[in-house]
Specification:
There is one protein chain. With 332 residues, this protein is an alpha/beta fold. It has two domains: 168 residues, Medium-chain alcohol dehydrogenases, catalytic domain (Quinone Oxidoreductase, Chain A, domain 1), CATH 3.90.180; 133 residues, Rossmann fold (3-Layer(aba) Sandwich). Helices cover 28% and strands 27% of the residues. The strands form four sheets. Strands 3, 5, 6, 9, 10, 17 and 18 form a seven-stranded mixed β-sheet that branches. Strand 12, helix 6 and strand 13 form a beta-alpha-beta unit. Helix 4 crosses helix 5. The longest helix has 17 residues. The chain starts with a strand and ends with a strand. It holds the Pfam family ADH_N.
Length: 332
């Protein structure tokens, strides 16, 4: 099969590789659409030791089952593979499984390819009226859905009465904003330094996106969701959340710096780290996509997988305003 292979920092090659082989309980899925995630960009830059070269990246995928249970099914893929027998899995917190794997990290190759092997339990059926590009958004949108649920549980007031700030208007931030709206949040604002992304979020998606400079001063928001994860955004989050408020941290931009620990301690601010999603979160997000609760989701740019290296270059250079680029492995 053809695949886009990460070969080292800023290195991607579109080349022939061996077809994946589905193991016991797995299905082989022909990939129709696969999104580029921020974690793929981190790996591409050589910043993720969990993703050593050579490796097929990509984990936001949808396609058609071609071998295994239910051949011919249209599916979206939950890429998080867990043991389903440990305490975390048994309690419905599969994302905390000690032996968790995710496609695009060894030992599992990713979905920037024509085919991928995945456990059958990780597949969610996609109705005929939903195209594969939108179905592939289930993975990134589930991250925001999980974060919103986590923040909602910790708030001292109903989400409908909360003022919420989301940092970042990429796919994760936009997904969090859409999840907040779908779950009935009150005032929702996005903070985004990229003017093109601010305009795109406001004009195409209907979210109130503003420059970070507009959010100066302390304590304006009940809930702040950091969908970026750099020192600067953590500093912004810990300054703009109100006393007794909640910070939810999704982004993995950098590992250190930014938190105003003194203020967070003196003002009893709750900090929640969130990783991916549970199986329940993923299915809830897929259902919200299918029934339209997350909007039209028409803010995707598509490119053939063969042009994947160009897509990564465009993202790195800031030439992309759309929150998500989806690659098409079956397009020539």
């Amino acid at each position: 099969m053809k695949a886009l292979v990460y070969t080292g920092p800023k290195g991607l090659e579109y080349r022939e590789v061996a077809d994946p082989v589905a193991g016991a309980g797995e299905s082989l899925v022909r990939i129709e659409s696969v999104g580029i995630c921020g974690s793929d960009m981190h790996a591409y830059l050589g910043h993720d030791e969990r993703r050593p070269a050579p490796l097929i990246l990509g984990h936001e995928a949808a396609g058609i089952v071609v071998a295994g249970a239910g051949s011919g099914r249209r599916v979206t893929i939950n890429p998080l593979v867990t043991c389903m027998s440990c305490e975390a899995c048994r309690s419905g917190r599969e994302n905390l499984c000690a032996s968790r794997q995710i496609i695009s990290m060894p030992p599992r190759e990713g979905a920037f390819a024509q085919f991928v092997a995945i456990p059958e339990r990780n597949l969610v059926d996609v109705p005929d009226h939903v195209d594969f590009d939108r179905a592939a958004l289930a993975e990134p949108l589930a991250c925001g859905w999980h974060a919103v649920k986590s923040g909602e549980r910790a708030l001292d007031r109903p989400l409908s009465q909360a003022r919420v700030l989301v940092l970042g208007a990429g796919a994760i931030g936009v997904g969090a904003g859409l999840a907040l709206a779908a779950r009935g949040a009150g005032a929702i604002m996005l903070s985004e330094p990229h003017a093109g992304r601010r305009a795109f979020a406001a004009e195409r998606i209907g979210l109130d996106a503003r420059d970070p400079a507009e959010f100066s001063g302390e304590g304006a928001f009940d809930l702040v969701i950091d969908a970026v994860g750099f020192a600067a955004t953590r500093a912004q989050a810990s300054d703009t959340v109100r006393p007794g408020g909640v910070m939810v941290h999704i982004g993995l931009g950098s590992a250190e710096g930014g938190l105003n620990i003194r203020r967070m301690t003196l003002q009893e601010i709750t900090f929640i780290g969130t990783y991916t999603y549970t199986m329940e979160d993923f299915r809830e997000t897929a259902a919200a996509i299918f029934d339209g609760r997350l909007g039209a989701l028409d803010w995707i740019e598509t490119m053939p997988l063969a042009d994947g290296a160009q897509a990564f270059g465009d993202l790195l250079a800031g030439r992309v305003s759309a929150p998500k680029i989806v690659l098409k492995p079956q397009q020539v």
